[in-house]
Amino acid sequence: MKATKPWVKPVLEYGPLLLFFAIFMLKRGDTVNLWGQEYTALVFATLIFIPVLALATLLQWRLTGKLAPMQVATLVLVVVFGGLSVWLNDPRFFKIKPTIIYLLFAGILGYSYLAGKDWLQAVLSEALPMDVAGWRKLTLRMALLFLALAVANEVVWRTMSETSWVYFKTFGLPLILFVFLMANARLYRDHALDKPTDAPDESTR
């Protein structure tokens, strides 16, 4: 993996989402006329978000030399469902996109757990070295988390205001993921692999 400055990755990952939020808040309650068509603030923000996310993902790949499977899947679904929202001028497609993403991840991790596969370990083992039992527990917990997030997204966008959903998407979902990762600190510690020493102890020679 190519070396990059520490701030590059978070900027490329969260920058497009924050830009989406800023454009929505700036245009909230207004309509934007483009190509003879009127777009709501959410659809217009989605129109900007799609190419910006694609560019940020491409830049991250060029700078680091790799992308996480979750990033690739997210980009594909953003292009598909965000594109449908813009094309049909219907924000519901973009609102349902997180549901599809989280159901996809829940299904993949659920199958991985039931089939005894180590897919999550294969993706995250470099950053989080754990034993097999630890990865099994984390796989099940993350599958249930993504299932709960899919349900939560459906409840929020169907029962609350558009502004509430944008806040939930921009800040609520990342915060829930962060809290989940922090809440599993004991799991990481209890199942951590001992790091091998780089050089033998001089005293044993």
TrEMBL record:
One Pfam entry name: IspA
Compartments where found: Cell inner membrane
Predominant localisation class: membrane
Annotated keywords: Cell inner membrane, Cell membrane, Membrane, Transmembrane, Transmembrane helix
Membrane topology type: Multi-pass membrane protein
Keyword Transport: no
Highest rank taxon of the organism: Bacteria
GO cellular component, one term: plasma membrane
InterPro entries listed in its UniProt record: YciB
Spans through the membrane: 7-27, 39-59, 71-88, 100-120, 140-160, 166-185
HAMAP family: YciB
Similarity comment text for this entry: Belongs to the YciB family.
Record's function text: Plays a role in cell envelope biogenesis, maintenance of cell envelope integrity and membrane homeostasis.
Protein name: Inner membrane-spanning protein YciB
Organism expressing this protein natively: Paracoccus amoyensis
